[in-house]
Design a protein that fits this description.
This protein is of the alpha/beta class. It contains 8 helices and 8 strands. The longest helix is centred in the C-terminal third of the chain and has 22 residues. The chain is globular and about 55 Å long.
């Protein structure tokens, strides 16, 4: 396990360091300063990884205990390289209920599906390490909060679909004033991404995909509170 510290509190740093000192499987990478966005610490972890697979987990999110086991089983059975899962929002840890899933359905997420609406929660992703290195997160701050969406688009376009396990193996913590919670901010970032993505630069296309993303986000994140 690689833990990248990108400017946490002294108390958090002490706790993480104590775990890494007690368990050789845990490695702490202490960043010299806060980079201002998740892209750089994620890329740093990918470059430092020594295993075949990368799994992302942001500090405020929670995994189901059987998440990795289920994803790796599907990846192995399908000889696939990219997987994610459904997620469910929570605000307080007491809201989380852990149940054992049975017969979890799997759905393919294609490039076009992701263009229309982001369907791949970052903290649910398991991706082969060599692919993660081939398609790093964009560290430009203009991509802050959409760097993961941009990365998944590139992987899907070049490597094929993502296998999404239709069960909330990820619990996503909702926090007041978090970046991804600002609808207008996210809409602007999404529009900028689609406007400059690849060789298909079209203002009309950018507006279209920004609109479909906004409508989907309203339903999944505000009404359904899951993805």
């Amino acid at each position: 396990m690689l833990i990248v510290d990108d400017g946490s509190t002294d108390r958090t740093r002490e706790v993480v360091r104590s775990y890494s000192e007690r368990d050789a499987r845990i490695r702490l990478i202490d960043m010299p300063k806060n980079s201002g966005a998740p892209a750089k610490p994620r890329n740093t972890a990918v470059e430092a990884a020594s295993g075949e697979w990368i799994a992302f987990l942001d500090a405020d999110d929670v995994w189901h205990p059987l998440k990795l086991e289920n994803q790796l089983r599907v990846l192995d059975a399908e000889q696939a390289t990219f997987s994610c899962t459904s997620m469910r929002d929570f605000r307080d840890i007491s809201e989380i209920e852990i149940t054992d899933p049975e017969n979890v359905p799997v759905k393919e997420i294609t490039f076009r599906m992701q263009q229309i609406k982001g369907r791949i929660p970052a903290s649910s992703v398991v991706l082969r390490t060599d692919i993660a290195r081939e398609f790093p997160f964009n560290e430009d701050l203009s991509y802050k909060a959409v760097e993961d969406y941009d990365c998944w688009l590139k992987v899907l376009e070049n490597k094929g679909p993502c296998l999404k396990l239709q069960y909330p193996f990820l619990m996503y913590r909702r926090i007041e004033n978090q970046i991804s919670g600002s609808k207008l901010y996210m809409l602007r970032r999404m529009h900028n991404l689609h406007l400059h993505y690849g060789n298909r630069r079209s203002p009309i296309r950018a507006l279209l995909f920004s609109a479909t993303h906004a409508i989907g986000a309203l339903y999944f994140r505000t009404i359904k509170r899951s993805l």
